[in-house]
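Inverse folding, one chain.
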């Protein structure tokens, strides 16, 4: 039994180390500031060897986002100035903004997976396992900027129905589809696309 536990611990350790392996890199991107102006520049991004998330979003949470200014100096993007920034990497568009978690009022960087009247956001963060190893986790958030500003609602599998019914309380068709289980946690992207098509 102990040998089996040791085996799985080693696998977990190797997986964690591989997830944390990063290469420094820059990509051409556009920063949109809170005053509406934009800056086309090079943005420093942490790259990984993992095909399912080649950009380490959790790194942004820990270290912040840096870019090259007109003088060629490295500058940290501060939350009070940033509206959002975007870049393309491996044919995927990354649009990243600060969003406020409604349950604790803390703003953090999230990736906009679906953009529209309702935005589906991904929050990548580090979580310590029972063995003390840092693992990367992803949580979905819903945001309706025109209604709620930067506030976003956490959506996890256990609270999917309750949270979505509250979020879409003013939209009878959404309430019916959620109650009828036409939309479930695993079809959250389908739900957001439907809403934006019907109500966007």
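Residues assigned per position:
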């Amino acid at each position: 039994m102990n040998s089996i536990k040791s085996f799985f611990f080693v696998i977990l350790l190797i997986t964690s180390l591989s997830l944390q392996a990063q290469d420094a890199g820059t990509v051409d991107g556009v920063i949109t500031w809170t005053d509406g102006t934009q800056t086309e520049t090079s943005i420093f991004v942490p790259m990984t060897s993992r095909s399912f998330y080649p950009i380490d979003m959790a790194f942004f949470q820990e270290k912040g986002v840096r870019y090259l200014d007109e003088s060629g100096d490295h500058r940290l993007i501060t939350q009070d100035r940033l509206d959002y920034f975007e870049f393309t990497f491996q044919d995927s568009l990354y649009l990243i903004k600060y969003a406020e978690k409604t349950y604790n009022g803390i703003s953090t960087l999230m990736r906009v997976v679906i953009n529209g009247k309702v935005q589906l956001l991904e929050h990548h963060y580090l979580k310590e396992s029972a063995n003390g190893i840092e693992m990367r986790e992803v949580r979905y958030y819903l945001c309706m900027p025109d209604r709620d500003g930067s506030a976003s609602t956490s959506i996890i599998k256990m609270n999917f129905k309750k949270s979505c019914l509250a979020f879409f309380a003013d939209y009878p068709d959404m309430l019916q589809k959620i109650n009828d289980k036409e939309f479930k946690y695993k079809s959250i992207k389908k739900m957001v696309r439907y809403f934006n098509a019907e109500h966007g």
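Helices lie at 2-20, 57-63, 145-148, 160-167, 172-179, 188-199. Strands lie at 23-33, 38-47, 66-68, 74-76, 82-89, 92-101, 107-114, 119-128, 134-143, 151-155.
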